[in-house]
């Protein structure tokens, strides 16, 4: 029996109060009701939501004083495992509650009656009839296309789990002088997501492995690469890599000297630090290159296979995928027209289309922790919705509540606004002026961006290929904050936001 004096709701978000009794003939459950009621009363004083669960004998509710102070009450006629699993699915709304009480139960002067609870999908819903027009945002995108900031893009806006805007703009590329017209961009068009890979694949995969007990965020690089020893970078933790405070520099052109995943990994591990870990944050591809390799070392599966089978498919995100860098006999990459081009690259001496733009990722076979992912705006937003749902999506819990919450808060606020994998807005944020300080998001070199505001229950995803035709043209920096500002103002005008 619990020590009443030590009961506390600190660091909790919800209290589950359960009573179990056997119901077979001849058995009489013996409960210390005075003590049970003291415990229940102490819990109700915490101010936290409380759910009471009565397994076995529902008539015991009459002995639980102050049961009305619970926020929800579940009565079950069995205590077996299947009943326990069913009630937790019902609490999470993974399953509907439609049962009726077969008996009348009086608890004090109150009669208990059953209520139905609907099932929730915990997915982003899209109704083509509710695809709202956003003239200001659409005008900003149209102007950017004319100014050759990018040839086309996709804007998706989700509010309270509903997609309220999802449209494609422009084309895959600018029309050629010979009159050849480029392909039109559709809402479902897949883009090279570049560094969004970090938060759409690597971060959720690492957090999932943490929740499964296969790694810990406090694990050091020396745990995966024993030859490193205890000095840097062996002393760098998984959390340090996720929060970009590891000491690794932002970027190095490994592709100029080596090829193959293992060769790149060894080059990363031999890189000299630029600062002591934990004293500041420097956005770094190198740390996420190692995180992608750690996923493979821990699971024994190639990164693309693990992410497909254990992250994307369970969440129902079928457009997210890697494209392995394998050329056919003519050297032309297959799936060439699968997504808009991202520019001409001197290193490969060809137009990059249907293959990853990032040269280090290409040197690693097209599959890495920092880049390589392709997909559409809906699936990118869906991953954001999973974090908004605190780890739940597609009728399943993918991440523990505490893990999902920790991931989107500043990891070390005294150092930076960076969370685990995610960035958070500052005064010069690409999210503009109106996203709350609790917001989190990420940008990508090829143009895509996504920002999520939990205070507004809002997700904005914009995909484009700003590196075509000129990767040095970075005027998208002007467009991103303007686009997010116009989105917020438009939603306020519609009455969707305060």
Description:
The chain is of the alpha+beta class. It has helices at residues 33-44, 81-91, 135-146, 197-211, 221-224, 238-242, 261-269, 285-299, 303-315, 359-363, 377-388, 401-407, 476-493; strands at residues 15-20, 50-55, 72-75, 105-107, 110-112, 125-126, 152-159, 162-170, 191-192, 321-322, 343-345, 350-352, 373-375, 392-393, 396-397, 440-443, 449-453, 458-464. The strands form six sheets. It has a six-stranded mixed β-sheet with strand order 6-8-7-18-17-16, with helices on both faces. It has a three-stranded parallel β-sheet with strand order 1-2-3, with helices on both faces. Strands 9-13-10 form a three-stranded antiparallel β-sheet, covered by helices on one side. A hairpin with a 2-residue loop joins strand 14 (392-393) and strand 15. Helix 4 (197-211) packs across helix 8 (285-299) and helix 4 (197-211) crosses helix 9 (303-315). It is globular. The mean pLDDT is 91.
Return Rg in Å: 26 Å
Number of helices: 13
- Which range does the strand content fall in? 5-15%
- CA(first)-CA(last) distance: 48 Å
Mean pLDDT level = 91
Q: Biggest sheet: strands, sense, closure?
A: 6 strands, mixed
Number of strands: 18
Structural class by helix and strand composition: alpha+beta
> Numbering strands along the chain, what is their spatial order in the largest sheet?
6-8-7-18-17-16
Helix content: 25-40%
What is the 3D shape? globular
Poorly predicted regions are none
């Amino acid at each position: 029996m619990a020590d009443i004096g030590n009961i506390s709701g600190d660091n909790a978000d919800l209290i589950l109060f359960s009573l179990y009794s056997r119901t077979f003939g001849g058995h009489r459950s013996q409960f210390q009701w005075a003590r049970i009621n003291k415990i229940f009363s102490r819990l109700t004083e915490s101010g936290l939501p409380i759910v009471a669960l009565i397994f076995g004998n529902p008539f015991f509710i009459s002995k639980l004083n102050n049961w009305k102070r619970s926020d929800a009450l579940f009565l079950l006629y069995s205590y077996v495992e299947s009943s326990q699993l069913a009630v937790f699915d019902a609490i999470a709304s993974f399953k509907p509650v439609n049962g009726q009480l077969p008996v009348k139960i009086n608890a004090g002067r109150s009669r208990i009656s059953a209520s139905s609870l609907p099932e929730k999908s915990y997915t982003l819903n899209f109704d083509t009839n509710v695809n709202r027009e956003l003239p200001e945002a659409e005008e900003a995108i149209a102007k950017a296309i004319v100014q050759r900031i990018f040839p086309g893009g996709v804007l998706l806006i989700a509010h309270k789990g509903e997609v309220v805007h999802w449209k494609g703009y422009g084309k895959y590329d600018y029309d050629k002088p010979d009159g050849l017209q480029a392909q039109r961009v559709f809402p479902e068009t897949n883009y090279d997501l570049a560094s969004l890979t970090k938060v759409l694949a690597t971060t959720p995969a690492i957090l999932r492995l943490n929740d499964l007990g296969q790694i810990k965020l406090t694990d050091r690089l020396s745990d995966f690469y024993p030859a490193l020893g205890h000095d840097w970078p062996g002393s760098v933790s998984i959390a340090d890599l996720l929060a970009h405070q590891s000491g690794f520099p932002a970027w190095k052109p490994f592709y100029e000297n080596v090829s193959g995943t293992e060769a790149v990994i060894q080059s990363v591990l031999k890189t000299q630090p630029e600062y002591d870990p934990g004293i500041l944050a420097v956005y770094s591809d190198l740390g996420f290159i190692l995180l992608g390799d750690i996923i493979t070392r821990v699971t024994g599966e190639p990164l693309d296979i693990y992410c497909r089978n254990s992250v994307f498919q369970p969440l129902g995100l079928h457009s997210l995928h890697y494209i392995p860098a394998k050329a056919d006999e003519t050297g032309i990459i297959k799936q060439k027209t699968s997504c808009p081009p991202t520019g001409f690259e001197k290193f490969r001496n060809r137009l990059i289309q249907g293959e990853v733009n990032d040269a280090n990722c290409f040197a690693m076979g097209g599959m890495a922790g920092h880049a390589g992912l392709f997909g559409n705006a809906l699936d990118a937003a869906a991953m954001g919705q999973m974090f908004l749902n605190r780890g739940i999506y597609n009728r399943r819990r993918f991440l523990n509540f505490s893990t999902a919450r920790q991931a989107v808060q500043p990891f070390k606020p005294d150092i930076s606004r960076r969370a685990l994998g995610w960035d958070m807005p500052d005064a010069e944020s690409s999210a503009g002026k109106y996203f709350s300080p609790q917001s989190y998001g990420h940008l990508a070199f090829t143009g895509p961006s996504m920002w999520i505001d939990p205070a507004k229950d809002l997700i904005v995803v914009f995909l484009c290929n700003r590196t075509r035709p000129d990767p040095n043209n970075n005027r998208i920096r002007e467009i991103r904050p303007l686009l997010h500002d116009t989105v917020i103002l438009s939603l306020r005008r519609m009455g969707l936001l305060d």
